[in-house]
């Protein structure tokens, strides 16, 4: 009878211990943080397939099994992998545009952007020169690709004929509406080379003629259009030179008559000019 009671107590105690470990006790292999303990190495390997148990197709050998002859494995032919053929890379990281040769030609004529080879093929030197040109004239993205905008700007600058401006002996600001460029002359010499501009759109065409700068303000407020006009130089009523407030190379956008300039060009013109500076506007912007 005593033996039976002792056995019952032993079984009950074992059940309490097992329930306690599963429900409340801290995992002895844990770090006390509540995180799960690391799995035993064998479990991890089995889960990853590194040490899988034998399958029915490959029964485990028993100690009593008669050893069988094992065939000597024959070396199998291993195919040597062929080296991958490298793909041709884009020259200097610059894609080639549809106007490559024309842009090379215009940039060579303009000078100052590096040595280009006029062959219609992108090279590292061509890439660097085109990027430099794009950065200078605010063309985005400046990725070295000879696309439509780069072609248009380069052509307009290269085709600008400074002799067409009827400049006086003193300082003269010249606006070529046809090519949408601006430059400055003094005594018959160019003191600020042609740069890009954007003049009045249809219905707001910038008028041709000879004028003088009548007022300057580093930051002028436009009452009609509620916008600041940096580096403002007025030359005809409410029309004047100023830094552009939008991307200059959107062809479908025009000003309300003013002569829009990139920041560095607006600053340079501001530094050159003064009240009384002569302004000559000539040519005709297409579509106005």
Name its key features.
alpha+beta, 5-stranded mixed β-sheet, 26% helix, transferase activity, peptidoglycan synthesis, signal, Transpep_catalytic_dom
How would you summarize the topology of this molecule?
Layout: H1 2-23, H2 41-48, H3 100-110, H4 124-136, H5 148-159, E1 171-176, E2 181-186, E3 189-196, E4 209-212, E5 215-222, E6 227-236, E7 239-243, E8 259-261, H6 263-272, E9 278-282
Parallel strand pairs: 1-9, 7-8
Antiparallel strand pairs: 1-2, 2-3, 4-9, 5-6, 6-7
Helix pairs in contact: 3-5
Beta-strand segment tally: 9
**Structural class assignment:** alpha+beta
Strand order of the largest sheet: 3-2-1-9-4
Mean pLDDT: 78
Beta content comes to 15-25%
Large-scale geometry:
globular
Q: Which CATH architecture of the domain at 163-282 would you pick?
A: Beta Barrel
Order of helices and strands: HHHHHEEEEEEEEHE
| The CATH top-level class label of the domain at 163-282 | Mainly Beta
- CATH homology superfamily name of the domain at 163-282: L,D-transpeptidase catalytic domain-like
Largest sheet report: 5 strands, mixed
